[in-house]
Write a structure and sequence with these properties.
- By secondary structure, the protein is mainly β.
- The protein has one domain: OB fold (Dihydrolipoamide Acetyltransferase, E2P).
- 8% of the residues lie in helices and 41% in strands.
- It is built from two helices and ten strands.
- The strands form three sheets. Strands 1, 2, 3, 4, 7 and 10 form a six-stranded antiparallel sheet that branches. The chain has a two-stranded antiparallel sheet with strand order 5-6.
- The longest helix is centred in the first third of the chain and has 5 residues.
Length: 111
């Protein structure tokens, strides 16, 4: 694993966001298109969560979002960040979204 410096780590902008809308990706079976409120703006994120979460489990959920990644198109949909999750590998992969344990404002910075 490559190590990064503390200065590189400080450049990561991680924020609390709330998933406000979940749609099926129009051209990918395993992807959702999420609309996420991160405080003063909303972002569209494409995430491979379909095999792990139903839409109704995601709407209203607070998550951690990496917001200063360069936007990328995933199967024709622009993704403006990345949802952070823990993955437990095994016979069946378990994916758990990282989320705050207490209520906190959308857009709060994660340090």
């Amino acid at each position: 694993m490559d190590e990064i410096s503390f200065e590189q780590w400080k450049k990561m902008d991680l924020r609390i966001g709330e998933i406000i809308e979940v749609e099926d990706h129009p051209s990918a079976d395993r992807l959702y298109v999420l609309k996420v409120n991160i405080g003063e703006e909303e972002r569209t994120l494409v995430a491979g969560l379909k095999e792990h979460y139903d839409k109704d489990e995601l709407v209203g959920k607070k998550i951690v979002v990496f917001i200063n990644l360069k936007p990328v198109e995933l199967r024709g949909v622009k993704s403006e960040g990345m949802v952070l999750a823990a993955v437990e590998e095994g016979d069946e992969e378990k994916v758990i979204l990282l989320s705050p344990e207490e209520e906190i404002a959308n857009g709060a910075r994660v340090r």
